[in-house]
Amino acid sequence: MSTVSLSRLDREIEELAAISAHPAPAVTRVLFSAEDLRAREWLTARAKDAGFRVRKDPVGNLFVCWEGSEPCLPAVATGSHTDAIPNAGKYDGVVGVLGGLEAMRQLKEAGHVPKRGIELIMFTSEEPTRFGIGCLGSRLMAGTTSPEEAGALRDAEGRSLDELREAAGCRGNLGAVKLSTGAYRAFVELHIEQGPMLEEKQIDIGIVEKIAAPSAFRLLLKGAGGHAGAVLMRERQDAFMAAAEIALLVEKAALESGSSDTVGTVGVVEVRPGAINSIPCDVKLEVDFRDTDREARDRALARIGDGTHALCRRRGVKIEWQVLNQDPPALCDPGLVKMVEAKAVAAGFSTSRMVSRAYHDSLFMARVCPTAMIFIPCFKGYSHRPDEYSSPEAIAKGVEVLKECLKELSLQ
Ligand code: HGY
Ligand code: MN
Ligand code: MN
Ligand code: MN
């Protein structure tokens, strides 16, 4: 990879990182926030500077298009996301978007003439921060989420997707987001591993064979509340103590699932009224629960469900269980996996096949076209933290492999 483009890409990662709701080194860019909109404008300008056409769909998925000599052929796509959860880093998703743009620019600058088009997709809302569900853009593209379900979503302030997307200039019927089968020849996503394996084993390129099955649910617990001094312990219906017991049950179910890939996280806890001398009467918990094995995950979820309802009965706490998502895992296309591996070996890079424990838009693109993921190492596997880091050299290797895959696929 030429040093010019390496520094260009590095500079752009820094420029995009500066578009954040929180000061460096943190990056926060929540769906349809001012920062998200500025990032979209910035990316559109970079793509147009490179001579590509840009379009967006009604939910704000952004498409950077390079038309092929045979435009009737389904394009080959790459892409990822630029939205970022609060207090995140500068590489999650961004490496796949800016690395994909860099791969396209390098092909163009080298005089490549694609037969089928090449498209870079910046997916709307890969992160669940705004509406509690991740991959909203790719779910709608894959038809996993219906326009009606998406239209019913509300954020913490009660704002709807329609209200926010229109304010962002994304108009049109959400039904138009859904891709027809065969819309793309292939989809290849470049992403940091968000785990420690590649760095620990000093491997340049991870080739993802399977993407874990994510699930998320929200629990609304209602207790009796009351005076912290006057209500005796045996008379309490304390919503927070029920929540605390549930959180430990989530951990226990993950640890005892029989699968080392089962992970459970209680990432959101809200307690009301939130006064030191008032027994919590309303608690909201949001739980993220995953495994690469769907059956192991769902067995553990059933255990959490049974245990939760039993302890809430015992404690006299009412519970409302809202499933946010419960998705199957995705398998990457074996032919594309072999291609990624062959390109990496041809470039002299070390490789390892692996699973992705994080979910990605690839999880849903795999439902509409052959899909593969290219992983690169990141510092100690850190991600969703300000000290997330991947070196320019590691990124360059990922871009090199992606570029060669896009080149070959665009000539098929
Ligand atoms: O949570 C995830 O796996 C992704 O990074 N949104
Ligand atoms: Mn993420
Ligand atoms: Mn990501
Ligand atoms: Mn992801």
Automatic annotation (TrEMBL):
<keyword id="KW-0464">Manganese</keyword>
<feature type="binding site">
    <location>
        <position position="127"/>
    </location>
    <ligand>
        <name>Zn(2+) 2</name>
    </ligand>
</feature>
<feature type="binding site">
    <location>
        <position position="81"/>
    </location>
    <ligand>
        <name>Zn(2+) 1</name>
    </ligand>
</feature>
<dbReference type="InterPro" id="IPR036264">
    <property type="entry name" value="Bact_exopeptidase_dim_dom"/>
</dbReference>
<comment type="similarity">
    <text>Belongs to the peptidase M20 family.</text>
</comment>
<feature type="binding site">
    <location>
        <position position="191"/>
    </location>
    <ligand>
        <name>Zn(2+) 1</name>
    </ligand>
</feature>
<dbReference type="GO" id="GO:0016813">
    <property type="term" value="F:hydrolase activity, acting on carbon-nitrogen (but not peptide) bonds, in linear amidines"/>
</dbReference>
<dbReference type="InterPro" id="IPR002933">
    <property type="entry name" value="Peptidase_M20"/>
</dbReference>
<comment type="subunit">
    <text>Homodimer.</text>
</comment>
<dbReference type="InterPro" id="IPR010158">
    <property type="entry name" value="Amidase_Cbmase"/>
</dbReference>
<keyword id="KW-0378">Hydrolase</keyword>
<keyword id="KW-0862">Zinc</keyword>
<feature type="binding site">
    <location>
        <position position="384"/>
    </location>
    <ligand>
        <name>Zn(2+) 2</name>
    </ligand>
</feature>
<feature type="binding site">
    <location>
        <position position="92"/>
    </location>
    <ligand>
        <name>Zn(2+) 1</name>
    </ligand>
</feature>
<protein>
    <submittedName>
        <fullName>M20 family metallo-hydrolase</fullName>
    </submittedName>
</protein>
<dbReference type="Pfam" id="PF01546">
    <property type="entry name" value="Peptidase_M20"/>
</dbReference>
<keyword id="KW-0479">Metal-binding</keyword>
<dbReference type="GO" id="GO:0046872">
    <property type="term" value="F:metal ion binding"/>
</dbReference>
<feature type="binding site">
    <location>
        <position position="92"/>
    </location>
    <ligand>
        <name>Zn(2+) 2</name>
    </ligand>
</feature>
